[in-house]
């Protein structure tokens, strides 16, 4: 443990804590709509953050890696600005990822409407009363499941890397290593605390306590990230129960 | 531990679920509520919640307890208020908020004025302060305990 008061990065300023939380999707989107340099930076960051969920969703629907990549680029290019895909998205109308999903659906419908997808057998104007606007592709459900899984991965990666930075600042490398080996390893069998502690000469209790420290950081960072994304009517702070509901909503569609 | 950033690409559904469950308040883990508070914003929110209906809380107490310029007399008032809030608190998190404010006031007096405002011998609190300094999420809170540890070390 560092005894020097000045030893902590951030010098005890609140900015140090705020840096541990990424910009919210809404903040990023607002910046991405700007035409200045910050807008360019925000668009890049936005694309980096959401590329995988977007690409996987599109790949599931067009079943062609190259086309999915082209469409993904089109999606991010159309995202901001007047008439952009998320022009009407607003935090008081729902969750950001739902707007993103709807915008992707619209992009895919547009893709088929303009005859770019050869796989669509039925012409919606003939099959449905509402035509293209109510087109419901059977693959949407599977694509949304893939989008959801990738969305969860992106969100967790963001939180975990914030926690990683904190642990490295604090000299908690061993804590982090124990946490990673327990929760993030590739093996099917989860190692016991005894096995995890042995290389460090720790008993199981100590090993678990160290990993719990990281788990606590993670819990705090992820919950704060989720809270920052949620807009409660009247501008109130999202309660712990609301955040728990959000976690359940992220959890329940996931398959083992 | 890898030098690279953490990737979640290869995580299975089971692992994703386990991580999400870790962040839930339903998680089956032992809780140290003092450490669960997290940061200034959360502590301030809990203190506001504690004071709801009884007195106005505008965040001044928390700012004062962290400031090196707050006189010892004021820290003593904060300590007594914190003790009362902790006793009266209903929920675990709120009780922890009152308790943490209490410890912050005592540690701040040690750190910034080299004064013990508690009836307890401060050296008895050293292991506890070390624990808080190492484990608290927020640097601004943790640094008060680090400074108190340094003050105790230089006094002994």
Key descriptive features of the protein:
heterodimer, A: about 260 residues, mainly alpha, 2 domains, B: about 160 residues
Give the arrangement of secondary structure elements.
The complex is a heterodimer of chains A (256) and B (156).
Chain A: H1 14-18, H2 25-32, H3 37-62, H4 65-78, H5 96-113, H6 124-127, H7 139-169, H8 173-183, H9 193-197, H10 204-229, H11 240-251
Helix pairs in contact in A: 2-3, 3-4, 3-5, 3-7, 7-10, 8-10
Chain B: H1 13-22, H2 33-36, H3 40-51, H4 60-66, H5 72-88, H6 92-113, H7 126-135, H8 139-155
Helix pairs in contact in B: 3-6, 5-6, 6-8, 7-8
Please sum up the structure shown.
With 256 residues, chain A is mostly helical. Chain A contains 11 helices and no strands. Chain A is 62% helix and 0% strand.
Structure description:
The complex is a heterodimer of chains A (256) and B (156). By secondary structure, chain A is an all-alpha fold. Chain A has two domains: 116 residues; 105 residues, no CATH class. Chain A has eleven helices and no strands. Chain A starts with 13 loop residues before the first helix and ends in a 5-residue tail after the last helix. The N terminus of chain A is likely disordered. Chain B has one domain. In chain B, helix 3 crosses helix 6. Chain B is globular, with a radius of gyration of 18 Å. Classes of the chains: A mainly alpha (256), B mainly alpha (156). At the A-B interface, helix 1, helix 7, helix 8, helix 10 and helix 11 of A face helix 1, helix 3, helix 7 and helix 8 of B.
Anisotropy-based shape of chain A: globular
Mean pLDDT of chain A: 81
Order of helices and strands of chain B: HHHHHHHH
Strand fraction of chain A equals under 5%
What share of the residues of chain B lie within helices? 55-70%
Number of strands of chain B: 0
Spatial separation of the terminal alpha carbons of chain A:
39 Å
Termini separation of chain B (Å)? Answer: 38 Å
Q: Percentage of helical residues of chain A?
A: 55-70%
Q: Number of DSSP helices of chain A?
A: 11
Rg of chain A over CA atoms, rounded to whole Å, is 22 Å
Order of helices and strands of chain A: HHHHHHHHHHH
Structural class of chain B: mainly alpha
The major sheet of chain B is characterized as: none
Q: Report the radius of gyration of chain B as a whole number of Å.
A: 18 Å
Biggest interface, and residues per chain?
A-B, 54 and 51 residues
Q: What are the segments of chain B in which pLDDT stays under 50 over at least 5 consecutive residues?
A: none
The biggest beta sheet of chain A is recorded as: none
